[in-house]
Write a structure and sequence with these properties.
Layout (H helix, E strand, L loop, with lengths): L1 H44 L4 E8 L2 E9 L14 E3 L4 H14 L15 H10 L7 E2 L5 E2 L10 H5 L15 H5 L1 H9 L3 H10 L7 E3 L7 H5 L5 E3 L7 E3 L13 E4 H12 L6 H7 L18 E5 L2 E10 L3 E8 L4 E7 L20 H10 L3
Antiparallel strand pairs: 1-2, 1-13, 3-9, 4-5, 6-9, 7-8, 10-11, 11-12, 12-13
Helix pairs in contact: 1-11, 2-7
């Protein structure tokens, strides 16, 4: 009798579990459909001819949306292989590459970056041209500390955007100085930056569909699927005009060309430990503290912040009047968003020069509200 009751209890529990799983599946499907509908409206509202979005959950791509057209005449629909210039999302590749190179003894991140052969000339230009990355005042009144050309700046300072004022004491996003990391590596190793990115990220992660710059000899298929850029043009009937293809040379700041699907697989490779060990991953996403002891909003090639108790690691990409993108990961929920488009309609006026506030981007916020558990 006890055995019968026991098996009946098991059957009842199994029935409840099945019902809960079905209910959860229905909720998930409803959320997915709502997000897909949102993406279609988002593309129209922000004038993005070609929009590609991937969502990853627990190392699987659970959504891959290809919306719009990848050509000038609206005859070639966007596909899962449509590629875009990822712009500053490239910096996440740089963070992983340099951390792996240091772990293998090829470089020391505390080495002097200012030994770069053209540093004196470039630093002089930055500090005398009125460029904000040499110092100045933002529209919101924030005083950007001046770049000090006579101070020692380490690779680590540059990688973490801590080069303004006294190096290592504060954060200010400086893509111009960051981009020269690749030049320093080439001068001090005798090998191209593409070589190191291939070794430590693309080949290590067994990745396909990623071009390390437009001159990458192994990436002709990626370049064949690139969506041409457009700019917002209010004077045109459809609000769009053809734009000039930006500089697609690979450096530490920019140059990666990829599809949303390929960047989703890159994210999965990171999570599965194929690119970096767990210790190096933790280090890559652990920011230093400023002189007041507060964590800075940037670690090693990634913005880092908290949102409703969740750690977010992310990077945007932006070429004005051409491309914009976003790679956003929520490690404790196991979810990732990749979004790429061929106008800068994915970018919103969020001050990422001095802080990390990705939830102010409406697409990022909708993703977080849809896929991140309370």
């Amino acid at each position: 009798m006890k055995a019968i009751i026991y098996y009946l209890l098991l059957a009842t529990l199994a029935c409840f579990s099945a019902r809960e799983a079905l209910a959860q599946s229905q909720v998930t499907n409803e959320k997915m459909q709502a997000f897909q509908a949102y993406l279609k409206e988002f593309r129209k509202e922000n004038l993005i001819p070609s929009l590609s979005v991937a969502v990853v959950k627990d190392d699987e791509i659970i959504m891959l949306e290809s919306i719009g057209f990848q050509d000038h005449d609206a005859e070639e629909p966007t596909t899962e292989d449509t590629s875009y210039l990822a712009a500053s999302i490239t910096k996440t590749f740089t963070g992983a590459t340099l951390l792996a190179m240091e772990a293998d003894g090829h470089i020391d991140l505390d080495a002097d970056f200012t030994t770069l052969s053209d540093w004196d000339r470039r630093c002089h230009w930055l500090t005398t041209s009125g460029n904000i990355f040499g110092g100045g005042t933002l529209d919101n009144g924030y005083r950007v500390p001046d770049l000090q050309c006579d101070q020692v700046i380490t690779l680590r300072h540059v990688l973490q955007h801590q080069v303004q004022g006294e190096p290592g004491t504060s954060f200010f996003y400086n893509p111009i100085v960051f981009g020269r990391l690749s030049n320093w590596v080439e001068e001090n190793t005798g090998k191209s930056w593409r070589y190191w990115v291939n070794i430590y990220v693309i080949e290590a992660g067994d990745l396909e569909g990623i071009a390390a710059g437009w001159r990458d000899p192994a990436a002709s298929e990626v370049l064949a699927h690139i969506a041409p850029p457009f700019r917002h043009a209010p004077e045109e009937s459809d609000g769009l005009a053809n734009s000039v293809l930006p500089n697609t040379e690979l450096n530490a700041s920019s140059g990666i060309i990829a599809s949303a699907k390929a960047l989703a697989h890159y994210s999965i490779a990171l999570d599965e430990g194929r690119i970096l060990s767990k210790d190096l991953m933790d280090k890559m996403w652990s920011p230093a503290s400023d002189k007041e002891g507060n964590p800075m909003p940037y670690a090693y090639g990634w913005f880092v912040q908290n949102w409703q108790g969740h750690k977010l690691v992310w990077h945007g990409g932006w070429w004005p009047d051409a491309y914009a993108g976003l790679l956003l990961k929520v490690p404790d929920s196991g979810v990732t968003l990749v979004a790429l488009g061929n106008t800068d309609g994915l970018r919103f006026e969020i001050n990422s020069l001095t802080g990390a506030h990705i939830e102010k981007n409406p697409l990022a916020l909708r993703f977080l509200e849809t896929f991140v558990e309370d």
